[in-house]
């Protein structure tokens, strides 16, 4: 492309400071250095974690920043020494790299931009026939929730599961529980508008904590003759994380924390809960090794074994990003996909 | 035996109220009813959980009680329907039963039989005691009451052991050693070549060290604020020794630096919620597993959720994850085969009437295990 080796000027939604709306700006994107890849973003989802960082609740969040970490695009040019990618490859940036070394990075994709540069180890090459305005969602929410059930909890066939929070993450967890053969999947949310979709994804029952005066964990323990085998926290609220653990069955129940809580907050419980046999775990990116797994998930989608389209409730042009955030904050979407 | 079918009057150390010394009393022990076994206790250990009940838990409804739950003895008589045991059998009473019928007993994932003392359908419930003193019912602690010359226990909470086993040693397999060893081997499932840390070097911590070694751990870091405990930890297989008081940095940071990111397995053997959090944070991200072994129910335990999201797993363990009736005889056999140490835990020998001295020793951290001789064999 004519842009190779040169600085690219393009649009990006910049977060100048915490708590303020994003501003559409013209940015300069430098050519990729050694080990880096520059890509043109075709589509991006908006994930609640973007909103979390924008709010200033993330202690690792620095400003100004270009957020967005759930995207898909095409390679525009590669830096020195890059052998795994070439111009024109269809790719998904990864917020957890897979470099073979024990490093740990946080985000660093910046998909709210027409062009971005990522490290080669933070990029997955996917089927060029995959529709980018759908598979971008495999860059975070769906993979995270699905993997939490299938990899981290390792849900067993015939088991009983509970999923707290029925946004994209929770729906993906439900999908994972169903794929693993769970016999009962209980969807829990304060917003009854979420229940229909949850049932379409495989929830066998739904519960609204507002309909009960007792704590939700007590309600679930009673519904399930002692508690669930697996529970998933897909909200990012420490009180719900506690409830999710305590809703688990004595002796073998396992609770997985997926949602991201605000800085400084702590989970807590009686040690008795763990001593009597419950296990508390957490997961990032669904426990998937990113580079090798994301392409396989794209394949699963292409073979219609994994739902993705059903998560997309709104498609908007990139310029309307703020409207996308508003929809999410109002609880009126599952996933908004922005197209470039 | 001549006592069969009759009430037995015998000596026991009774805890009349919390936070007071135990009192040697004459008590009455009823004959065993259906499915029960009356046991002459020959020897008992003193475990910190006995002290916890007396000094920390101090539940109003939990007194008067005969404490002690780490004992061994001989069957004196059995109730109707008991075919598994007969007078003269050497046995260890069990702090959790194994009914073999409930879904917990049937599940390979847990040892927590629902007939247990923690609030299920409880055949050994504190409320259902066979001991009386001065006309009052005296509760049986954890369904056992080994600070007594005789006790009555449901057969699903009694393990028959090898007649060659010395009761004044294997009594310790009734709690502490089995609890710590099993936490490493069954609950954490320590892997060969791994790096482990045991927080707290009392009997449970030392047993956890022993379990880590048996499981093939390459490095076992023993952590305690009392440096006098390190020597014995070495005997059990600890390779490194850390006193948090020697460092201004948090202990999790010290351990993380020593181990290139954290340990693979950590075991909390103190019963302190701050140490439980430190033990979790001392684990490596990605795969570290922390097991809570020590007992407390006074405070919540807390941690930042990021610790778990980064890949650490938090678990807990009761009685070493051993299905009790199956596991205790196995541990006795392992001891007789010299695969599991027991003698090395014993630092003091006394008689039952010296129980308050034994408790005092433990309060001051000056013992590992005191074995009390309760009756003649």
The total of beta strands of chain A comes to 17
Would you report the number of β strands of chain B? 19
Question: Largest sheet of chain B at a glance?
Answer: 7 strands, mixed
Amino- and carboxy-terminal Cα gap of chain A: 18 Å
The computed structural class of chain A is alpha/beta
Work out the strand percent of chain B.
15-25%
- Name the overall outline of chain B: globular
How many strands, what sense, and barrel or not for the largest sheet of chain A?
Answer: 7 strands, mixed
Major interchain interface with per-chain residue totals: A-B, 32 and 34 residues
Distance between the first and last residues' Cα of chain B: 14 Å
Approximate strand percentage of chain A: 25-35%
Number of helices of chain B: 11
Low confidence ranges of chain B: none
Explain this structure to me?
The complex is a heterodimer of chains A (340) and B (377). Chain A is α/β, with parallel strands linked by helices and 340 residues long. Chain A is built from ten helices and 17 strands. In chain A, the strands form three sheets. In chain A, strands 3, 5, 6, 7, 8, 16 and 17 form a seven-stranded mixed beta sheet that branches. A six-stranded parallel beta sheet of chain A has the order 11-10-9-12-13-15, sandwiched between helices. The two termini of chain A are 18 Å apart. Chain B has 377 residues and is of the alpha/beta class. Chain B has helices at 48-57, 103-106, 167-170, 176-188, 203-214, 230-236, 251-258, 273-281, 306-309, 324-336, 355-363; strands spanning 8-15, 23-29, 36-45, 65-66, 71-78, 90-93, 131-133, 136-140, 150-154, 158-160, 195-199, 219-223, 240-242, 265-268, 289-292, 301-303, 313-316, 346-351, 369-373. The radius of gyration of chain B is 20 Å and the shape is globular. Chain B contains eleven helices and 19 strands. Classes of the chains: A alpha/beta (340), B alpha/beta (377). The interface between A and B is medium-sized, with 32 and 34 residues. Chain A: InterPro entries: ADH-like_C, ADH-like_N, ADH_3, ADH_Zn_CS, ER, GroES-like_sf, NAD(P)-bd_dom_sf.
């Amino acid at each position: 492309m004519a842009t190779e080796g040169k600085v690219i000027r393009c649009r990006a939604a910049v977060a100048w400071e915490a708590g303020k709306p994003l501003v559409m700006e013209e940015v300069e994107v430098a050519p990729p250095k050694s080990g880096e890849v520059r890509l043109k973003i075709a589509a991006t989802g908006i994930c609640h974690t973007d909103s979390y960082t924008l709010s200033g609740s993330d202690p690792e969040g620095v400003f100004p920043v270009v957020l967005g970490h759930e995207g898909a695009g095409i390679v525009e040019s590669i830096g020195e020494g890059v052998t795994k990618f070439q111009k024109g490859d269809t790719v998904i940036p990864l917020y957890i790299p897979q470099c073979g070394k024990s490093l740990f990075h946080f985000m660093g994709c910046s998909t709210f931009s027409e062009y971005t540069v990522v490290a080669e180890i933070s990029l997955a090459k996917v089927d060029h026939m995959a529709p980018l305005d759908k598979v971008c969602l495999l860059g975070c929410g769906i993979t995270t929730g699905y993997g939490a059930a299938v990899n981290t909890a390792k849900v067993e066939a015939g088991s009983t599961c509970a999923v707290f929070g029925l946004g994209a993450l929770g729906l993906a967890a439900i999908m994972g529980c169903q794929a693993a053969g769970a016999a009962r999947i209980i969807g829990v949310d304060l917003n009854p508008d979420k229940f229909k979709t949850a049932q379409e994804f495989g929830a066998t029952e739904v519960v609204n904590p507002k309909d009960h005066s007792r704590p939700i964990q007590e309600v679930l323990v009673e519904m399930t003759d002692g508690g669930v085998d697996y529970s998933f926290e897909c909200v990012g609220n420490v009180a719900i994380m506690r409830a999710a653990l305590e809703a688990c069955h004595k002796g073998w129940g396992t609770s997985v924390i997926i949602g991201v809580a605000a800085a400084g907050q702590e989970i807590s419980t009686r040690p008795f809960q763990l001593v009597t046999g419950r296990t508390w775990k957490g997961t990032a990116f669904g426990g998937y090794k990113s580079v090798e797994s994301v392409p396989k998930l794209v394949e699963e989608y292409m073979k219609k074994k994994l739902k993705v389209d059903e998560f997309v409730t709104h498609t908007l042009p990139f310029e309307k990003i703020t409207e996308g955030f508003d929809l999410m904050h109002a609880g009126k979407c599952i996933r908004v996909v922005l197209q470039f | 035996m001549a006592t069969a079918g009759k009430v037995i009057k015998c000596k026991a150390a009774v805890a009349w109220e919390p936070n007071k010394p135990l009192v040697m009393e004459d008590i009455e022990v009823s004959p065993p009813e259906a499915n029960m076994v009356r046991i002459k206790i020959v020897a008992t250990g003193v475990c910190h959980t006995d002290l916890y009940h007396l000094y920390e838990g101090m539940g109003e409804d939990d007194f008067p009680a005969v404490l002690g739950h780490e004992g061994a003895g001989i069957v004196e008589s059995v109730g109707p329907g008991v075919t598994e045991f007969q007078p003269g059998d050497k046995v260890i009473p069990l702090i959790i039963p194994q009914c073999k019928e409930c879904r917990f007993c049937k599940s390979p994932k847990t040892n927590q039989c629902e007939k247990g003392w923690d609030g299920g359908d409880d055949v050994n419930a504190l409320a259902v005691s066979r001991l009386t003193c001065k006309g009052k019912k005296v509760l049986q602690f954890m369904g056992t009451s080994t600070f007594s010359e005789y006790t009555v226990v449901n057969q699903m909470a009694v393990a028959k052991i090898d007649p060659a086993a010395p009761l004044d040693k294997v009594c310790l397999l009734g709690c502490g050693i089995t609890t710590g060893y099993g936490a490493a081997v069954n609950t954490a499932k320590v892997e060969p070549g791994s790096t482990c840390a045991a927080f707290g070097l009392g009997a449970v911590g030392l047993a956890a060290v022993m379990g880590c070694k048996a499981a093939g751990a390459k490095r076992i870091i023993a952590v305690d604020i009392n440096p006098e405990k390190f020597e014995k930890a070495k005997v059990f297989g600890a390779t490194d020794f850390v006193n948090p008081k020697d460092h201004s940095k948090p202990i999790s940071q010290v351990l993380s630096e020593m181990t290139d990111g954290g340990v693979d397995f950590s075991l909390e053997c103190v019963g302190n919620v701050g140490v439980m959090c430190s033990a979790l944070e001392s684990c490596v991200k990605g795969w570290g597993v922390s097991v809570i072994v020590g007992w407390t129910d006074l405070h919540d335990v807390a941690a930042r959720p990021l610790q778990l999201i980064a890949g650490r797993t938090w678990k807990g363990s009761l009685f070493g994850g051993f299905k009790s009736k199956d596991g205790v005889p196995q541990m006795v056999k392992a001891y007789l085969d010299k695969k599991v140490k027991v003698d090395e835990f014993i630092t003091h020998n006394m008689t039952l009437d010296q129980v308050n001295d034994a408790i005092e020793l433990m309060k001051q951290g000056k013992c590992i295990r005191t074995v009390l001789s309760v009756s003649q064999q």
